[in-house]
Write a structure and sequence with these properties.
It is built from 7 helices and 8 strands; from the N terminus they run βαβαβαβαββαβαβα. It has helices at residues 32-38, 62-73, 91-105, 122-135, 167-170, 199-208, 236-245; strands at 19-22, 45-50, 78-83, 109-113, 140-144, 159-166, 187-192, 213-217. The chain is globular and about 45 Å long.
């Protein structure tokens, strides 16, 4: 059993709608079937991240244009991947990439990956979010912290990724008490290396900890050498079925 704070003990009885957030598959040219699967009607998807070439690339990519267009037609929100490099990214470069995503791929928002978690970095992240909303007033903003940040970050973004890591860590993880002040749809958990036989347990942990957007995969990071999110999990149909039928909700 994971270690949990008492502040979230009642989450399982709230009837929260759990859905998938896709951190970003391999390029559509490399993984066309996986991108096509994301547009299948009825799949509970909150959003899908588009990462063309460590960002939007230097010119519109026809394969990514097609994949993003198919998702939008299916009513799926597409987010552009912006790397904050823990606060080291130049503001002008970040803004230029955001404009390319909007102009070329008509993205519905952004995942600000490798987002800082400390309080001193909060003003600069707020500045970035305010500017992104100025150029796209309906933008859905997700902060990719990967762990619990200072609670002030929750005031500016639509969602926070408060866990991104291995199943061996997730199953014993502890949620920050301040998250109980917000609804579950504000939080996302990305977990790799989840065995098929532990899917229901992983879903229960997400609900107990108050995270309504999840992504679980049996792929691993190979000790930090591999991106575990680039490939669809081997039990994709199982997890989609569990969310569609409300198993463990």
């Amino acid at each position: 059993m994971p270690h949990l704070t008492s502040a979230t003990a009642g989450v399982t009885s709230t009837g929260v709608r759990t859905a998938l957030g896709i951190p970003g598959y391999a390029h559509p040219l490399v993984a066309p079937a996986q991108w096509a699967e994301l547009a299948r009607p009825g799949t509970r998807l909150d959003w899908v991240v588009l990462d063309v070439a460590a960002g939007p690339g230097t010119r519109p990519d026809p394969h990514c244009l097609e994949a993003a267009g198919r998702l939008r037609t299916a009513g799926v929100r597409v987010l552009g991947h912006l790397d904050l490099t823990y606060g080291a990214r130049a503001f002008g470069d970040l803004l230029a990439d955001a404009h390319r995503y909007l102009d070329w791929y008509r993205t519905d928002g952004f995942l600000l990956d490798r987002c800082p978690i400390e309080r001193p970095a909060l003003p600069e992240v707020r500045r970035a979010i305010t500017t992104l909303r100025a150029i796209s007033d309906t933008a859905h903003i997700v902060l990719g912290h990967g762990s619990h940040p200072h609670p002030g970050y929750a005031e500016s973004a639509d969602q926070l990724v408060t866990f991104s890591g291995a199943w061996s860590d997730y199953r014993w993880s502890q949620v920050a008490e301040w998250t109980a002040d917000y609804p579950p749809d504000r939080f996302c958990h990305f977990v790799h290396g989840v065995p098929r036989g532990h899917l229901d347990e992983a879903l229960r942990i997400a609900r107990w900890q108050g995270a309504a957007t999840i992504y679980f995969t049996d792929r691993t990071d190979g000790g930090g050498r591999v991106n575990p999110w680039e490939t669809m999990p081997g039990y994709w149909d199982d997890i989609v079925s569990r969310l569609e039928t409300g198993v463990s909700e």
